[in-house]
Each structure stands twice: as C-alpha cells, then as structure tokens.
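Supplementary Methods. Inverse-folding protocol.

Structures were first reduced to a discrete structure-token string of length 206. This string, shown here, constituted the complete conditioning input.
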C-alpha cells in the first residue's frame, strides 16, 4: 500500500507578485504562476506519479494550479474536492495592503509578529493557530483517511493551510512552524506509514 500524499503550494499569484497581503481575496495566477504550476505537473509526470483523488481550496489560484498539474499528468478528469477549510489564512485588515506599506503604518516589529508569530492575529484576521484549527479537522477527517486507505492524494492549497498539515505530518512545534518556507509550485511528496508517521519525504525542486 503506497499511502502517498503530495502537497503543492499554488503558483505565483498576481498579489504575490505585487507583494500584497492576499488571504481570502480571490486573485488569479500570473504568467510565472502558470509556468510554475505547469512545471510542477511535468515534475510529477517525470517521476511517474499518479493520483486517485485531489483536494483544493475555494480560491482560484489553488484550483487553477491543480488543473494545470492534472493537465500535465493526463488526469484532468480526476475526482477533485474543493473546500474552504483549505483556504489561505485570512489576513483581515491587512488584505490588499502592500507589505512595505503595512510596515510603515504599524512598524516592522508589529507586522513581523502578525506574519510570523503562531497565535497573534492581525486586526480582523486569523493567526496561524486559527488557521491550524480550521485546516486540521478537515485534514484528519477527509484527507488523511484517504491516504491511509491507500489512495494517492494530491493537495493544491496555500502557504499557511499547508503549514498546518505539515505541522502534524512532521510533528513541528508552534515555534518551528511559522518559519517554515514553502516555495510556490514545488511539490512535496510524503509517503506515510500505517501509523500516520512519515516514511519518506521528497521536495521535487528540479
């Protein structure tokens, strides 16, 4: 039984490119983001990886990334489940602001705390802890059981929703997880043991 779980952060979005806080704002991929998603599919195809089911968020940048990947591996008709639980962290009042402008308004230290602390939310938004509390029940009730049944699962989502999953997969602490960097469009291939621990991990960069 393979028990394979592949996580991919969406390709570069229009607001990534502009250095804006995005959160739940539904912005599309840039040309570079499309290229990153296409390349992710090509990398998975080159390794002969195939999938039985896919999960993604309610946001177009993750959905389009998934569609491009599935197109490259010849699996455009794959069963796909979209759920808001996998959405990016909600940045509240910061959404739409340039990160440099936010630093000028609130100060470097405060913005750093909002971005990189575990449990301090920005005004009107979610902390990483809040995001974990939203993502993990969905992962435990839907995604993980599929993996443990031997389904090969692909998840196309966002930096912070994927951090929540990786936190559980790798047993990372609340101090470790905020500093975990996930590149756009780079697949991470996990193979799990029957007890849900990680048997192997591969980041497909090249």
């Amino acid at each position: 039984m393979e028990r394979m779980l592949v996580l991919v952060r969406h390709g570069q979005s229009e607001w990534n490119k502009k250095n804006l806080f995005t959160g739940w704002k539904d912005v599309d991929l840039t040309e570079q983001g499309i290229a990153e998603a296409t390349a992710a599919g090509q990398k998975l195809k080159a390794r002969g990886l195939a999938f039985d089911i896919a999960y993604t968020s309610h946001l177009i940048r993750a959905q389009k990334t998934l569609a491009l990947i599935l197109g490259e591996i010849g699996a455009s008709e794959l069963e796909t489940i979209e759920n808001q639980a996998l959405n990016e962290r909600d940045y509240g009042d910061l959404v739409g602001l340039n990160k440099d402008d936010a630093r000028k308004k609130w100060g470097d230290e405060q913005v750093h705390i909002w971005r990189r602390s575990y449990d301090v939310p920005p005004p009107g938004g979610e902390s990483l802890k809040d995001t974990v509390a939203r993502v993990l029940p969905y992962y435990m009730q839907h995604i993980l059981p599929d993996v443990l049944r031997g389904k090969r699962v692909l998840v196309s989502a966002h930096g912070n929703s994927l951090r929540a999953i990786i936190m559980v997969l790798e047993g990372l602490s609340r101090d470790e997880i905020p500093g975990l960097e996930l590149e756009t469009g780079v697949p991470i291939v996990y193979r799990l043991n029957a007890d849900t621990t990680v048997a192997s991990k591969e980041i497909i960069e090249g």
